[in-house]
């Protein structure tokens, strides 16, 4: 199972995984610059228009929540294993805590267990397998 951070990094590094580290860093830098420029233009336009659509990108409508099977029509509950706003509202209406629906992978004790096992030491470069890709 991956975390949101890992999935975010995977999307940033998509298409650059097999590049040497220098090219990888350069590519990531330029992708982030483009992202900041795009978002800056978007929010400048929003601020200049003096109107903000808070529901932009969120589907509107009614969503069915099944607390027993841990699913919601919006799909976020199943995908993230975290209660979405619909699940929280459903729990509130039946006077139940939404916290029981938070997956154990998000618990601090689970995160700390990652560090219980020792990490392998990175050996000298002489022991690394040879690089067999096209060099740019």
TrEMBL record:
Identify the residues that the record assigns to the SWIM-type domain, covering every copy: 63-95
Keywords assigned by UniProt, alphabetized: Metal-binding, Zinc, Zinc-finger
The record's GO molecular-function terms, alphabetically, read: zinc ion binding
Q: InterPro entries in the record, alphabetically?
A: Znf_PMZ, Znf_SWIM
A Pfam family the protein falls into: SWIM
Matching entries from PROSITE patterns are given as:
ZF_SWIM
Descriptive protein name: SWIM-type domain-containing protein
- Give the originating organism: Trifolium repens (Creeping white clover)
């Amino acid at each position: 199972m991956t975390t949101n951070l890992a999935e975010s990094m995977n999307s940033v590094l998509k298409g650059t995984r097999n590049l040497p580290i220098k090219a990888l860093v350069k590519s990531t830098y330029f992708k982030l610059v483009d992202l900041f420029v795009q978002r800056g233009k978007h929010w400048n336009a929003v601020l200049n228009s003096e109107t903000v659509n808070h529901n932009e990108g969120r589907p509107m409508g009614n969503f069915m929540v099944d607390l027993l099977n841990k699913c919601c029509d919006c799909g976020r509950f199943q995908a993230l294993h975290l209660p979405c706003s619909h699940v929280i509202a459903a729990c509130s209406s039946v006077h139940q805590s939404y916290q029981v629906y938070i997956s154990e992978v998000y618990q601090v004790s689970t995160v700390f267990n990652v560090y219980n096992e020792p990490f392998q030491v990175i050996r000298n470069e002489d022991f690394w397998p040879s690089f067999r890709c096209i060099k740019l």
